[in-house]
Structure formats: C-alpha cells, structure tokens
Write a structure and sequence with these properties.
single chain; mainly alpha; about 60% helix
C-alpha cells in the first residue's frame, strides 16, 4: 500500500542512536501530517462536502471512509475549528514545531490577544512544564463546572469505581467531610 523500504527488521536492527533518531523523525513527520489532515478536514467540513461523499455530516464521513472512532472524529473537528482562529498556531503545528498534544492544550487557553505569548511559552517548555505554567489561567471557551459524581460497582469483584467533577465549593465541602 505504501512505498517504503522499512521493514520490521530494518527498524529493530538499528543502533540505539539510530532508533532514537528514527522515532524523532517519525514523530515530526506524523505531527506534520496530522496537522495537514486536521486543517484539510476542517476545510472539507466548512465546504459541507460530507453529503457529496454519501454521509450526513463530516464526523460520519470520517467514521465510514477512514474507520475513525466517533469520539475521535468529533475531537479532530473541534480542534480544527478552534485552530482555524489562530493562524500562527496553525502554522507552528503544520511545521511540526508543536505536537498535537501541545496544540490541544494551548487551544484551551488561547485568545487572539495571547497567541504570540502562548506560542513562545510552548516553544520554550516541554509539555509537562507547560501544563503547570498554564494551570490557573482563564480558559475562554470552557464550560462551567458541572457537579456530577458517577459510581459503578463491579458485580464480580465488588470493586467500586468513583469519578466525577465538582465545582470548587462542593469539592471543598466533600474534602472537609473526608477528613
């Protein structure tokens, strides 16, 4: 299907340094192509081309034509739609200067006024540090926190799994009760 000279053996027989270089190069290329895919997908969506290709909407077309999970299809469309507002971020992503994970993180905090600042911050810090540096900043498009706790009991083992999200006041209330 793809014109390639790589085989499993040519990859597994590399020296440690060559293997690290292969991974770095592959990730850079992957990032570039993922950016290209998402930006093109957003244009496809904006032109409303899904119906011409036999699907009711773009996410359904992605599912059918490219075997992409529903949730992933909507994620890519959401990222692409938000990315379209930020040409410098889009260009950095397309140039593989920033990974998909960094782009997704920045989009939570980015505005037209802080695009330059956040790009410089992202270029100067690894992902984990960037998460910490952005913590506590306003997230312009965030939805209000919904108070919701889900509890599921495994009938076979009796294990209880609890997860959820609480606003700060309810979280503090729960924290006081657990002490």
């Amino acid at each position: 299907m793809f014109a390639t000279t790589a085989t499993i053996t040519t990859l597994t027989d590399q020296s440690d340094a060559d293997l690290a270089a292969t991974i770095t190069d592959a990730h850079r290329r992957l990032t570039h192509h993922k950016a290209r895919f998402i930006i093109s997908l957003t244009e496809f969506h904006d032109r409303e081309l899904a119906r011409r290709h036999g699907a009711p909407h773009t996410a359904a077309w992605l599912q059918r034509a490219h075997q992409i999970a529903r949730r992933t299809a909507y994620e890519y469309l959401g990222v692409g739609t938000r990315l379209k507002k930020f040409p410098l971020l889009s260009q950095a992503f397309l140039a593989a200067t920033l990974s998909y994970s960094v782009v997704r993180l920045l989009l939570r905090y980015m505005t037209r006024d802080n695009e330059d600042e956040l790009l410089e911050l992202a270029k100067a810090h690894p992902f984990a540090e960037l998460v910490l540096l952005l913590a506590g900043r306003d997230q312009p498009d965030s939805r209000p926190t919904v108070n919701k706790i889900s509890v599921v009991t495994d009938p076979d083992t009796g294990d209880v799994r609890i997860w959820g999200r609480l606003d700060p006041a309810r979280g503090a209330e729960l924290d006081r009760k657990s002490v």
